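Moderator note: this is an archived Q&A kept for reference. The question asked for a predicted structure of one protein chain; the sequence and the answer are reproduced below.
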Amino acid sequence: PILIEVKQMKENTNTEKISIKKLTWQDVEQLKNYTTETGKILPRRITRLTAQEQRHLTKIVKQARNLLLMP
């Protein structure tokens, strides 16, 4: 299942990448695109985000986890 997600993520990076700076902890459905089934955050080499975008993503995923919105 993870390999399928990786292939899909590599294909759909441009559309998702534009809106990453506008994401908040409330956008749980979009944040699930950047995590595995077990809840781990996908690395930069798969999501193809910049370092700044990856740090922002990490921060908001952790906020969503603390509020029990994500596993």
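Archived answer notes: The chain is about 55% helix and 0% strand.
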